[in-house]
Specification:
The chain is of the alpha+beta class and 81 residues long. 31% of the residues lie in helices and 16% in strands. Strands 1-2-3-4-5 form a 5-stranded antiparallel beta sheet, with helices on one face.
């Protein structure tokens, strides 16, 4: 299990998101694997982005529901919702 986790963390967010079937537009991705929204009423861009100045292991966040995390969280939400 640890080998899979370390392998996953070596990949970029863009690579993992693309392999999970999320579609990108610029630096935004969707749909959110947690809330399943593709965009909000106010912002027509995909909801998942990589916020500036994030610290620790958080490297993505949904700007609609607020859920975020690292690459492992993204895979977990996508697989298990």
């Amino acid at each position: 299990m640890k080998d899979w986790i370390s392998l996953c963390k070596r990949n970029s967010f863009e690579s993992v998101a693309g392999n999970l079937g999320l579609t990108g537009k610029g630096n935004r991705w969707g749909p959110c694997p947690h809330c399943n929204n593709e965009r909000s009423e106010k912002d027509k861009r995909p909801p998942i982005g990589i916020p500036r100045g994030m610290s620790g292991d958080v490297n993505w966040r949904c700007f609609i529901c607020g859920v975020g995390g690292d690459i492992i969280d993204l895979v977990s939400y996508q697989m298990n919702n």
